[in-house]
Amino acid sequence: MTRERPVGSAGIVRRTCRRMGLDRNPMRRREDRLQSGVGLLLTLLFLVVVPVVAIVLGGRVYETETRATESRIAELHRVDATVVEVGKAPLYAPITPARVSWVDGQGATHVEDYRSSTMVKPGATVSVWLDKGGRVVEPPSETRALSRAVLVSGAVSCAVLMCFATGYYLLSASLDRRRARRWETEWATVGLTWGGRGAV
After folding, report:
1. pTM of the model
2. Which residues neighbour 76 within 8 Å (Cβ) at sequence distance 6 or greater?
3. What does the pLDDT read at residue 120?
4. Do 38 and 47 contact (CB within 8 A), yes or no?
5. How many CB atoms lie within 10 A of CB 35?
6. I need a labelling partner for 171 at 20 to 30 A (CA). Which of 26, 37, 88, 200 fits?
7. Are the CB atoms for 6 and 14 separated by under 8 Å?
8. Residue 144: C-alpha distances to residues 70, 87, 92, 148 (Å)
């Protein structure tokens, strides 16, 4: 009679355990089970704990960067300026140098250099940000907080992954050396046994 193979969820669980080295195969050594168990534990920790830590840390970074951006915006004010001259955009950067003019609240006209991230023409109206001294400054980045949060979360995940991978590699190397010593001892024992039998 042929043994029926397990089907359904039970069969999937058994096959998964066998592939991961968690079955009751008598050929598996203690070192094999230890390596499989540590690998499974590290995988679960990475999939469960690391995302939570990354989200919490990324959320704090996002809040901090958002407050910094809002504080920066509070120190600036925006005015509508007119482009009076357009320079030649460099090939290596999508920036168009220009000169713009605007009239302040006292009726004084100001002319300053301005770098536009889009193509502009003389006579066009652009919005520029000014500091307390009336100088043109770079506008606050709307995506800085999110990009910093994603960067920090990704860096934390990569760092933890590298630590887990290094620890698993060191454990695997140590267990490989132990397995090799056991194999040598067992083969030596087998050789003595076979030699003894041949001498009888």
Report:
1. 0.60
2. 129, 130, 131, 137, 140
3. 82
4. no
5. 20
6. 26
7. yes
8. 12, 28, 22, 6
The separation between CA 21 and the C-alpha centre of its own chain, rounded to angstroms, equals: 30
Reading the block at residue 92, the tokens are 């290596």
- Distance CA(145)–CA(72), nearest Å, equals 13
**76 falls in which pLDDT band (50, 70, 90)?**
confident
Does residue 105 contact residue 146 with C-beta atoms inside 8 Å?
A: no
With tokens 């100088």, the residue in question is 135
| SS3 annotation, 98-128 | EEEEEECCCCCEEEEEEEECCCCCCCCEEEE
What mean pLDDT do residues 83-96 have? 76
Q: How many Å apart are CA 164 and CA 184, to the nearest integer? A: 30
- Residue 98 makes CB contacts below 8 A (sequence gap 6+) with 83, 84, 85, 86, 87, 113, 114, 115, 116, 120, 126
Q: Rounded distance, CA 120 to CA 84, Å?
A: 10
Helix (H) or strand (E) segment spanning residue 17: helix 8-19
Residue/partner pairs of 17-26 with CB below 8 Å, 24 or more apart: none
Secondary structure (3-state) at 133: coil
State which amino acid sits at residue 126.
V
DSSP symbol at 28: S
Strand blocks (E) in 38-186: 77-86, 96-103, 109-116, 125-130, 136-137
Q: Are 126 and 109 in contact (CB under 8 A)?
A: no
Q: What is the token pair recorded at 115? A: 């770098």
